[in-house]
Specification:
- By secondary structure, the protein is of the alpha/beta class.
- The protein has 4 helices and 8 strands.
- It has an 8-stranded mixed beta sheet with strand order 1-7-8-6-5-2-3-4, sandwiched between helices.
- A hairpin with a 2-residue loop joins strand 2 and strand 3.
- It is globular.
C-alpha cells in the first residue's frame, strides 16, 4: 500500500457542527491538556477553550503505546462537557493498514464510537504507508491523516480545510500552545508555591 496525497476540492469539506481540537503536554509530575472548540473548519477563532492540569506522572513513551500517555488527559478534557461532533488530535488513529489502534482509535472506542476522530500527525509512524498525506500552505512536509468513524478521504479534506496558511492548522497550533502554557503555569506554581 502506498501513501496517499490529498488534493481534493476542500469546499464543503464538513457539515460538522462542533469540532474539538485536543492536545496535551507533559512534564515532571504534571500533564496538561487543551481543547479548542470551533464550529466550522474555516473558523479563525475558537468558540471556547478548556484547559486541564492533572497532577500525575505520564506513562513512559513507547512506540505504538502513545495512547497510554495522552488518553487520560484527552478524556479528562471531554469529561462533563457536551460531546462534539468531531475530534481532531495530534497523532495517529491507526498504526498500520491492519487497523492496529493508535491514540485516536482508543479515544474513539472510549467514547463508544459516537464521535468521529481525526488524527493529524506531524511525524510519520515507522513504515507509514496507510495514512493520507496532506500538504498545507507552502510546506513540503505532509501531515499524516487517519480517522475513525469517517472515511480517510473526508478526514484529509477536513484537515486541508482547517484555517491557517501554514503546515499546522491555526486552531491546532493554538491547542498545542494552550496545553504547553498550562503545563508551564502548573510547573511554576509547584516550584514556587508562595
Amino acid at each position: 500500500m502506498t501513501s496517499r496525497q490529498s488534493t481534493s476540492d476542500t469546499s464543503n469539506a464538513s457539515e460538522t457542527r462542533t469540532i474539538a481540537i485536543l492536545d496535551a503536554a507533559y512534564g515532571t509530575g504534571f500533564a496538561a491538556g487543551a481543547c479548542v472548540l470551533i464550529d466550522d473548519v474555516a473558523s479563525v477563532a475558537p468558540l471556547a477553550t478548556r484547559l486541564i492540569v492533572l497532577a500525575h506522572e505520564a506513562a513512559d513513551y513507547r512506540p505504538g503505546e502513545f495512547y497510554k500517555r495522552e488518553l487520560p488527559v484527552l478524556l479528562a478534557l471531554l469529561d462533563g462537557s457536551d460531546a462534539p461532533d468531531l475530534i481532531i488530535i495530534d497523532g495517529y488513529v491507526h498504526l498500520g493498514a491492519d487497523g492496529r489502534p493508535g491514540l485516536g482509535a482508543h479515544l474513539h472506542a472510549a467514547l463508544g464510537g459516537r464521535v468521529s476522530v481525526i488524527g493529524a500527525a506531524k511525524t510519520p509512524f515507522r513504515g507509514d504507508d496507510w495514512s493520507s498525506s496532506v500538504l498545507r500552505g507552502q510546506s513540503t512536509r505532509p501531515l499524516h491523516v487517519t480517522a475513525a468513524g469517517m472515511e480517510g478521504g473526508d478526514a484529509a479534506r477536513i484537515v486541508r480545510s482547517l484555517h491557517g496558511a501554514h503546515r499546522i492548522p491555526a486552531m491546532c497550533k493554538l491547542a498545542d500552545k494552550l496545553a504547553r502554557e498550562a503545563l508551564a503555569d502548573a510547573s511554576a506554581k509547584a516550584a514556587d508555591p508562595a
